[in-house]
Amino acid sequence: MMSFGMRKGQVLAAVAAIVIALGSGQGAAAQGQLTPVISINDRVITQYELSQRARLLNVFRTPGDVTELAREALIEDRLKQQELARFGVSVPEEVLQQELEAFAGRANMTLPQFTQVLSQNGVDISTLSDFVEIGILWRDFVRSRFNRQVTITDADIERAIAQRGNAPTQIEVLLSEIIIAAPPNRAAAARSAADQISRMRSFSDFESAARQVSALPSRENGGRLSWVPITNYPPQLRGLLLDLQNGEVTEPIEIPNGIALFQKRGQREANRANQAPLSIEYATYYIPGGQSDAGLRQAAEVRDQVDTCDDLYGVARNQPTEVLDRITEAPSAISNDVALELARLDPGEVSYNLTRDNGETLVFLMLCARNNAGAGTTDRDAISNQLRSQRLGALADALLEDLRASAVIRP
Hints:
The chain folds into three domains: 8-148 and 394-410, Triger factor/SurA peptide-binding fold, CATH 1.10.4030.10; 168-270, Chitinase A, domain 3, CATH 3.10.50.40; 279-371, Roll (Chitinase A, domain 3), CATH 3.10.50. 49% of the residues lie in helices and 18% in strands. The protein is built from 15 helices and eleven strands. A hairpin with a 2-residue loop joins strand 5 (253-255) and strand 6.
């Protein structure tokens, strides 16, 4: 059975740290790190744990006062641990290891690589391990304790479907964008610049960076975009964009020969409804010369000649068939660079920001249609699972509030 205080390895590590510190004349500082700063019933939180959790939140780029957020999170962890201890809940070491590897994988790293990043930021791997462990334990505990109390009926599913169908609003996001050109000979420099920009939280800093390094015309106004329905963006990016706080910047997003970054400026519910399309129809007309003056001039001439995708067939007549593609694809199948351009377009609108063949060919991109045919098909199992998760979450929140109300918490 697992102990819910310090694990044996952590205790030994703490003792070793004290011995080393004493030997180097820093014993008082080390002991100060182990000083209890918060007491929850008979459990304590040390200064070391508080500073470690704050550093971890900084690595996660959590907005807000990370010290206060760390304090609240650790108090909740202690309350959860006390409840879990009453039921003898534990997690197998191999499961925890798998979860840690999966956690690192979500950052596109191996666990050793992620551990190195933590170390560089002064975070011990045991801090991440504790964070992940309590998440696993609490999730599984809530499911086992409350699952029987949650019953999802056909009427519940029908009600959810009806509410979705009648919803008068949709989520829109207000973003600023930067796309850094990253051909092979400049890829390393582009990644370095993108890493620095991803840490920005100031709107003015991001706008300044857009004017300096962005390859898009939007650089002229600091990369600022207008309100766009979240459903216009690629499915793999929607959750990422919705999770951003205002001022936060995405991690660098790799696209062909470039790196994209977005800063969130706002989010709202708009009155016009818009379902996520099942497929998107678009056309690409390829112009030699890339973004040279001649290539851009020809693209502008084509733009003035066309109102719909059908008009492109007249532009491409007597040319090789490969100069024009008209494609209908599921949003998830479209390459990120094309999908990001299409997100800003309405049917009949065009862009010529992209290139192919190492910049030698300009891509004249036109949105033909967003197709919702068949969108009435509903995944009832998915809706049932969502309702169950919502209700389990509400029960878990209520339990945590009860535990906090009955606890003796001293700063």
